[in-house]
Amino acid sequence: MEFERFEEKRLRTLHDRGLDFRDARDLFDGRTLYTYSSPRGDEARFVSVGIIGQQCFAVVWMDRGGARRIISMRRARHGEKANFSAILG
Fold it and tell me: Which of 5, 48, 55, 60 could bridge to 71 as Cys pair (CB 3.0-4.6 Å)?
């Protein structure tokens, strides 16, 4: 799967949150994810929640021209963690 991102936003997120969009691709390697729709206007966006390393993260993404475009990355919120844990059993 091909990934793309807006480099300026990646650098800002790295500076502000210490999170690198490059690590977001790890979520999409076949591991279990909790994914839900998060449309914005006419764009079909999604949030996928999963574990990277030892922490739970949420990645906002969309499919664009055959690539998965990473829009945002953050630590998962309490409700997202709970929903993710529920699918793990």
Answer: 60
